[in-house]
Amino acid sequence: MTVKPDAAADADDRGVTGHGEATGLGAIRAKESELRDISDAHNGADAAGASALPTDSGSRVGRGLLPDASYLILASRLVPGLDGGFTVSVMRRAADIAAVTGEWPLLLTVDLGEDHDADRAEWHRRGLLPDPARLRNLFDDARADRSWLRDAVDAADARADVKSAPRAQLRQDVAGGPESGGADAILPELRTGRRLIRDAAGDPLLEIPYGGDAATWHLTEDPVTVFDRGRPVGTLRGYRELYRVWIDHVAAEARAGDDRPVVLLCEARQVGEVLVDDGASRPRPDVLIAHTTHACHLLPPYTWDAAIQPAWERWLRIADRFDAVLWLTPTQRDDVERRLGAGIRSFVVPHPAPAPVAEVTVERGRVVMLNTLIPRKRVDHAVRAVARVDGARLIVYGDGPERERIAALAAELRCDVELAGHIADPEEGWHGADVLVLTSTSEGQPLVVLEALAHGVPVVSYDMPYGPRDTLAGGGGILVAPGDIEALAAAIASVVGDRRRRDALAAAARASAARMDAAASMRALGAAVRALLRGR
Questions:
Q1: Is residue 119 classed exposed, middle or buried when 0-12, 13-18 and 19+ CB atoms within 10 A define those classes?
Q2: CA–CA separation, 121 vs 105, rounded Å?
Q3: Fewer beta carbons under 10 A from the terminal one: N or C of the chain?
Q4: What is the DSSP track for 361-403?
Q5: Cis check: omega of the bond before 466, within 30 degrees of 0
Q6: pLDDT of 97-108, one tens digit each?
Q7: pLDDT tens-digit profile of 452-494?
Q8: How many Cβ atoms are within 10 Å of 377's Cβ, its own excluded?
């Protein structure tokens, strides 16, 4: 069956336009010139918020978009080319904060990594990290100076009851007594499921719990052993205490000679969870923790009252312990509050759209997708839909385990599909694009929709949770019922087959992107931070 443009009336065409995992480094490369204009373009924005700031804040806060503070951004890892939209969104947020405040936030990661210096160099090359020293890693910091670890274990031992505290006994066991042979003194049972981290000279630095269940590894109570001069000197209580004492150390450095508040934006759920859960004190009280969200919290069928993903269920139980939770869309915030009440201090801070780009030549019928080839993206739905549309061909940018299955389906349906694979510059994906299609089961707020709007590319998307409905509310796309391949095909055909309609959607897309710019996102973040500062 071939869908003709006049069949589009059957599609859910309401004139709406819109951690996802879409890549966007091409858009990031354009950020520097775009961001330099934020403060000037929004000179008069948020006058009420600006008047509430300290009188000495001056130009550092970009005329009031953000309160004057030391901003820290904490992620699990920030590796170029990994983790798709998560990494892109975190680096964009850092660039936006820097553009507004005139000061690059400290970016903090906790992964073991292989070569963080190479990551820093690549972000610097791309213009997203002017000073490589602003990207710090827990284990790199420990290798450079382990004094904060020594101070932490000394303080912990001072608090412990030496007659009964498990920590004191554990230290005695690990140290092996007066005849300890250094690293070899660690008991054999402690070596199971553990990893030894060495310093630059090859001497023991830390022995950490390693491996375990992918969903719960961070919750372990197994000790982190601290070494000095080749000998174990004490322990920390799992990742809980290791992460917390490092954050305290970094925050203390940020506060040295600076009376501004410290605002920690936590971007990773597993890391954030151990900062506030039971088991040890949370980071120092002068650190305000705002936890961001990046994904959908639900399981199929993704209705507001559907089962919650186990990791999210555990996190939601302690989310009220954060000073704030930042949701990407009002819909997700409202669904959580509908279910759990208003106990979480919630704010909506959406991803920003890139600056609208100049119009380019469009190849009629060029339907594009930019995403990984995994089951959640349901690329097979797009293949089946495009196969029903005369004159349409599908180009999929991205790779993944579904590649062979998608290729086989395209051959079976005799559908014109190109699996373009990973591209170094995703900007190539927008060249000639006529329509963007998004068929995921769920998202957070997919960056690829924002990028499509900025490029004037109409979006045809399933009305999934979360992101497309809120992001496309200003125009520029068409939503259809999730999983309805016939409606998806009809919507694609309506854009490909009607150039006047396509042009109208493209114009609406660019206008929508202009309204959802970096300044709008920073204004929302600023409102949340001001509320936290008032409530201290």
A1: buried
A2: 17
A3: N
A4: ---TTEEEEES--SGGG-HHHHHHHHTTBTT-EEEEEB--TTH
A5: yes
A6: 999 999 999 999
A7: 999 999 999 999 999 999 999 999 999 999 999 999 999 999 9
A8: 25
